[in-house]
Amino acid sequence: MTNLAKDLTELSRKAGEPAADLTIQAEGNAAVFDRENSKFLVKASGVIMGNAKEDDWVWLELGSCVEILEDARKNGSSEKLTTALNEILASSKNSDGQVRKASIETLVHVVAFHAMEVDWSLHTHPTPVVALAASKDGAKHYSGTVFPDEAVMCGPVPLFLPFANPGLDLGLGVYLGVLEYQQKHGRNPGQIILGNHGLCTFGVGARDAYGATEIAVKAAKIRLGALSAGGISFVPNDAAEAIAFRPDEILRKRLLAREALNK
């Protein structure tokens, strides 16, 4: 098995720990991009994150998945494209050459690798995040950040997207949302909140992606607490922007990303 599969397994098991409350059953997935070979590893369908093994990760060519996304962006979602996507997912193989169908949410990671140019992508369903994302004012609750570390670790402006069915529709929704966010803010979102669904975080390594998830979950709990105490008071936008890109905070985030995942 590759070191990438080993690292993904460690990340998956940590995200799947019951105490973390990030995923249960076969919820969630993770992926890593092998930039030298333009392909990526993603969780096989039906695998429980907390029970993942090194042979539960399958390889896919990034280019073929990007073609599906680009076609959908230009021409809209269609049954033909959905069939083409399912054929790609169904033909994926693990490092031993065993055919295992890739996760239906694979395109979320494709957006991360292609449009955002990151190497690690983690998608989870934390209860407090989904509670907010399922509320009627979900977008409003994520219109800003609620404490400094959220701005630093997850970016000063979250990206909230409305619900879309997992598969091509979800992938296209995330793709269009990220492109619009980049156009507006000139950078990538650090956290993506999927309406009625879950959370996406990213990083230069497994620790980075998981750390962003930890902060995002804490921020969700703070939002819920603030709502119960009368309402959310966001960090002022200019202050969130300033602290997120302050040299000392950038250095701190870079140092944290180097820490081992089990710390």
Features:
8-stranded mixed beta sheet; alpha+beta; L-fuculose-1-phosphate Aldolase; 263 residues
Describe it:
- The structure is a single chain.
- Strand 7 and strand 8 form a beta hairpin.
- By secondary structure, this protein is an alpha+beta fold.
- The two termini are 24 Å apart.
- Strands 4-3-2-1-5-8-7-6 form an eight-stranded mixed sheet, sandwiched between helices.
- It contains eleven helices and eight strands.
- The radius of gyration is 18 Å and the shape is globular.
- It has helices at residues 3-15, 62-75, 79-90, 106-114, 127-133, 138-141, 148-154, 168-185, 206-228, 237-244, 247-257; strands at residues 29-34, 39-43, 57-61, 93-94, 120-124, 159-161, 191-194, 198-203.
- It has a single domain, classed as 3-Layer(aba) Sandwich (L-fuculose-1-phosphate Aldolase), CATH 3.40.225.
